[in-house]
Amino acid sequence: MPPRSTWILTEGLAGTEAPCRGLARALGVEPVLKRVRVRQPWDSLPGRLWLRPLAAPTADSDKLAPPWPELLISSGNVAAPLALAIKHESGGATRVVHVQNPKLRLDRFDLVIAPRHDAISGPNVVTTRATLHGLSPDSLASAARDWEPRLRHLRRPLVAALIGGSNRRFELSPARIGALAGDLRALVHDQGMGLAVTPSRRTGAANTALLQAELGPAGAFIWDGAAPNPYLGLLALADFILVTQDSVSMISEAIGTAKPVYWIRLPGKSRRLQRFVDELTADGVLREFRGEQTKLERWSYTPPDDTARAAAEIRQRFGW
Q1: Checking phi first, is residue 268 left (phi over 0); if not, alpha (psi -120 to 50) or beta?
Q2: Global pTM?
Q3: Which SS3 state, helix, strand or coil, does residue 139 take?
Q4: Across-strand partners of 6?
Q5: What kind of fold does domain 6-129+307-318 have according to CATH?
């Protein structure tokens, strides 16, 4: 029997919520989404130092109160101590599955599902090659039907460029966007490719405008940020996918299509994220996009099936 009730607990960020949604979908459960932010002093403290965690959420956060769920899927540094507090308040009845490194004692969780670049291990840790996601053949087929008429005018083969943005480790500056736009324009002019670009919220209005100015005249499709979002449609219809290296979730979803995926280097440094792309490159899954010197090629690989494997592990361990 599946759990009678399931919560997903995150800060509401796409990179933490999407893997939890994908896992819930693989388990066949309909979760209640709980999005929280926390106040000071909790917001400035590591989770191991939180006292009275359930007093931490802001007034505009979703309410964390009984009846407690049978299964709690959490992700993010804020969600981890809150999830453990809920487990305690439930008298241990709530099973807590945390996605990614919780940065707390691993044995306090019922299960931790973490990508191998997090470099953690233990008897209750399931290691994945990439991060979890909710892509499926059905969702891609549906997106292809929706978006094929709208992208039919673009030349084939079609390149999808998934653009992230600046974070604590990487910077997507106007200079880098300008250079990237030149490289993408070369794909259109020199390699005869069609081009569709989808920025993210972190790309920023100025960078998105620069992409429009540089690539629009070349006939590229650039999403302007208004609904509907073409992201799934581009994954479904593209022949080649390019992804900036700042987003583990976008890279994980891109390689879930089994299409040729190239990662785009950004200024900055993260040993953890560099290990992620290096390991997948060594596996023959990813290749680096090196600008104009890169001639896009097709290759085949078996995409990681991490989400289904994680769901199977939960069913086996918890008897669901």
Answers
A1: left
A2: 0.90
A3: helix
A4: 71
A5: Rossmann fold (3.40.50)
Q: Judging by beta carbons within 10 Å of its beta carbon (0-12, 13-18, 19+), is residue 287 exposed, middle or buried? A: middle
pLDDT for the residue numbered 201 = 87
Please answer whether residues 74 and 6 qualify as being in contact, where contact means their C-beta atoms are separated by less than 8 angstroms. Answer: no
Amino acid at 142: S
Lookup: tokens for 113: 């599902």
Helix (H) or strand (E) holding 113: strand 111-115
3-state secondary structure of 231: helix
Measured in residues, the chain has a length of: 320
Largest CA distance in the chain: 64
Residue pointed to by tokens 């029997």: 1
User: Under a CB-based contact definition with an 8 Å cutoff, are residues 170 and 271 in contact?
Assistant: no
**Helix 248-255 to helix 271-282 angle, to the nearest 10 degrees?**
10
Chain position carrying tokens 């976008």 = 250
Mean pLDDT of 214-229: 92
List the chain domain ranges. Answer: 6-129+307-318, 137-293
In CATH terms, the fold of domain 137-293 is Rossmann fold (3.40.50)
Instruction: Say which residues have a Cβ less than 8 Å from residue 185's Cβ, sequence separation at least 6.
Output: 214, 215, 218
pLDDT in tens, 228-286: 999 999 999 999 999 999 999 999 999 999 999 999 999 999 999 999 999 999 999 99
Cβ atoms of 71 and 3 closer than 8 Å: yes
The C-alpha atoms of residue 188 and residue 195 are separated, in whole angstroms, by 7
Residue 1 banded pLDDT, cuts 50, 70, 90 = confident
Q: Is there a common fold for 6-129+307-318 and 137-293? A: yes
